[in-house]
Structures are given as structure tokens and as C-alpha cells.
Write a structure and sequence with these properties.
The structure is a homodimer. The first copy, chain A, is an alpha+beta fold. Chain A is built from 6 helices and 5 strands, in the order H-H-H-H-E-E-E-E-H-E-H. Chain A has a 3-stranded mixed β-sheet. A two-stranded antiparallel ribbon of chain A has the order 1-2. The first copy, chain A, binds a DNA duplex through helix 2 and helix 4.
Chain lengths: 142, 142
Amino acid sequence: MDALEAIRGRGLRLTPQRRLVYAALEEHVGHATADQLCSAISLKVPGFQRTTVYRTLDLLVELGLARRVQLGHASAYEAVRDGSDLHQHLVCEVCGSTTDIRVPQLLEGVRTATAQIGFDLEQVELVGHGRCRPCASARSLA
Amino acid sequence: MDALEAIRGRGLRLTPQRRLVYAALEEHVGHATADQLCSAISLKVPGFQRTTVYRTLDLLVELGLARRVQLGHASAYEAVRDGSDLHQHLVCEVCGSTTDIRVPQLLEGVRTATAQIGFDLEQVELVGHGRCRPCASARSLA
DNA sequence: TTATATGCAAAGCCTTTGCAGAATT
DNA sequence: AATTCTGCAAAGGCTTTGCATATAA
């Protein structure tokens, strides 16, 4: 909950709603869509607004407390934990599941390429598409 | 135009509309949104339907004649040229421009990581966010 | 001739915006 | 007390779908 103090540090307000969104994000395993978070919170606080979730997520991303991942058309979010847990995402085209992977030297490689053209890199997002192990196995049996 | 014969190869029909969409995609420099393509085609064929553009793009992607790139919320498309011109994209957060980059060994790195977990990788999409050279310069002056 | 594709209209997601009332500092 | 936030409703992009008509093969 300490992380949220960053909100006050910005001169903004630490409201119950913001706590709820951040808590839901931390509790959620893997990535969560705004809608999933809203549903989860609604169990405790009926009528919780999607609008508020979106606004809060924007704020959390801006503060570096959450990361936004573009999976397909919709955005997914995940809490940024301590220690740079930089990872990328794999999406299974068959079952839609997502998996985390770490690609060593990815950042270095991209930095080298961007440095050459004077692009000031802030974030790298990589999404791989294919078939997860279970779905790949199922296919090879067919 | 040979590439389009792949459509017939699938037992599907090579219509004037499909030719138009593919031609527009090839002529377009850089990435094109469905809407941009539709506008371009509409200059020659007034009233050309966005619906048709979307349906055709889906088909072209499926046939490997086009590549879909998720830039922000909207999709952008580019023709797949001969010779693997695999590249990735940088998006400037200030002016919204996109730039192509090539990241050597990117594919190898990702393949290594996916092979370890048995994920059958088909495509890799990387998007970098930051500031393009002009915008970065403008900022450092401020 | 027969299945496929297009045009059009409508609906569907996901997300953002405007504004009045509520709540934090 | 002053400013920021929330809830609600509405609109806004982008994309998909349904169905009758037109068209490629």
C-alpha cells in the first residue's frame, strides 16, 4: 500500500476507489482487463464504475505502478512489482491464454537499434503469437 | 499482383474490391489503417465500404500477404514484401509518428525463450514507445 | 448455376468525456 | 473552503455481424 502514497506525492488524492483498483490489480493473477477488475471490485462494492477503473488505471500507469499491455484490441494491465520484473507476453491463438516470458538482452538489442536513430526509448512491449504447449500438443496429435 | 492468386488457391474469389485493397496497401508508404485505405480507395471508387476493407485485410493477413500491427488501440497494416523484411515499430508519444527498426537476433532470442516452454511461436510483434529524434531534441532544448 | 462476396445498416466492444454532486486535503 | 474525484449518462472510435443482392467461377 506504500506505493500508493506516490499519488499523494503528486498532489492528488488517495481515495477508497483508487485503493480498490490497485488492490484488485495486485490480487489478480496475470493480466487483468479493466472490465475484469471492475467485476472483481463490484463483488465487494456493487455498482463500482468502469469509468473509475479506467481513470485510475491511467493514473497508475503514469505513476509507474502499473503496466499496460496491448493484447489484441483490448488493453490489459498488471501491477509493477518491486525489482524489475521485465517480461514479455505470449498469446495462444487457439485458447487465448497468455504466458509470460523473459527474453535476455531484449532491451539491450532494442536500445542499440534505437540509439542509432536517435529515438529516446522509454518502453518496450513485445507480444508473441502462436500456440501454447497444450494447444500445440493437441494439434500435433490430430 | 501474382500474390493475390493465393486467394484463388484457397477456392476464394479474386474480386475487384480485393485487388483494390491490396493495391492500396502496397502503394501506401509505411503502415495504413483500415480507414486510411478506405479513404484512398474512395478517391477512385466513391462509396467504397470500410466493411469490405476490414474483411479483405483479415483475409490478406490470414494468407500472409499482409501483416497486422497493433499500434495503440487501432490496428495498422502493411503489405508483406518478398524477402523477409521483418522489422519492428517505434511509436513517438509526442507526435504519434511511427518508425521502423530492425533488431538483430530478436527472433532468435524469442525463439530460444519460447522453445524452453514448448510454445509454438508464429509471429513476433514488438512496439517501442518513447520520443522520436525531432521530438527528443525539442524536449532537450526546453 | 451455385457458392461466395459486397453493400448497407445496425449493433458491439472498449474507452473517453461532460457535468453535477460528493469527498479529500 | 477549495480542489479534486466519482458516478452517471452519453458519446466516440474502431470493428464486426446480418441479411439481401450482386457477382465470380
